C-alpha cells in the first residue's frame, strides 16, 4: 500500500515543473507575476471548492477559523509564496535548477520537521543515510549552479 502512496506523490511531484512552466508562461502574458499568481490561486480555490461540493465533503466555513490554531491557516500563505516564487524564478533558473533548489528546500525543512516531530509529523531522527542523501542533493544543486 505504501507504494501506491509513493507513486501518487511521485506523479504529483511530476506536476510541479509543469505547473511552474504554465505559471511562468501565464506571467509573461499578465501585467505582473502577482497577477498570474492570483489567477493560479483563484483557479485552485474554485477546483477544490467544486471537489468539496461534488464529493459531499463539508464546504469550508468560518467556524474552522475559530477552532483551528491560527498557525495552521498559514498553509495558504505558504502556497501563495511557493506559486509566486516558482513562476517568478522559472524563466531565470530553468526547470531542472528550479526544482532542484526547491527539492533541497523541501528536504531540508522536512528533515527538521521529522527530527523534532513538528507540525504533527511523527518524530524520526536524521540517521546517517538521510544525512548522506541530503548532502548528495546539495552536491547536485551545486553542480547545477556551476553548470550555468
Fold blueprint:
Elements: H1 2-29, H2 33-55, H3 63-67, H4 75-116, H5 128-146
Helix pairs in contact: 1-2, 1-4, 2-4, 4-5
Structure report:
By secondary structure, this protein is mainly α. It has one domain (2-146). 79% of the residues lie in helices and 0% in strands. It contains 5 helices and no strands. It has helices spanning 2-29, 33-55, 63-67, 75-116, 128-146. Helix 1 (2-29) packs across helix 2 (33-55) and helix 4 crosses helix 5 (128-146).
Q: Summarize the biggest pleated sheet.
A: none
Extended strand count: 0
Helix and strand sequence: HHHHH
Query: Count of helices?
Result: 5
Could you say which overall geometry the principal axes of the C-alpha atoms support? Answer: globular
Oligomer status: single chain
Outline:
With 148 residues, the protein is mainly alpha-helical.
List keywords for this structure.
single chain; 148 residues; mainly alpha; 5 helices
Amino acid at each position: 500500500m505504501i507504494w501506491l502512496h509513493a507513486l501518487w506523490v511521485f506523479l504529483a511531484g511530476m506536476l510541479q515543473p509543469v505547473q511552474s512552466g504554465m505559471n511562468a508562461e501565464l506571467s509573461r502574458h499578465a501585467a505582473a507575476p502577482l497577477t498570474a499568481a492570483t489567477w493560479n490561486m483563484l483557479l485552485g480555490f474554485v477546483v477544490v471548492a467544486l471537489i468539496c461540493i461534488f464529493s459531499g465533503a463539508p464546504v469550508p466555513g468560518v467556524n474552522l477559523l475559530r477552532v483551528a490554531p491560527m498557525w495552521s491557516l498559514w498553509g495558504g500563505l505558504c502556497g501563495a509564496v511557493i506559486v509566486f516564487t516558482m513562476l517568478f524564478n522559472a524563466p531565470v533558473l530553468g526547470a531542472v535548477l528550479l526544482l532542484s533548489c526547491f527539492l533541497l528546500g523541501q528536504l531540508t525543512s522536512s528533515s527538521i520537521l521529522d527530527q523534532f516531530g513538528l507540525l504533527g509529523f511523527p518524530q524520526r531522527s536524521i540517521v546517517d543515510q538521510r544525512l548522506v542523501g541530503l548532502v548528495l542533493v546539495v552536491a547536485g544543486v551545486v553542480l547545477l549552479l556551476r553548470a550555468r
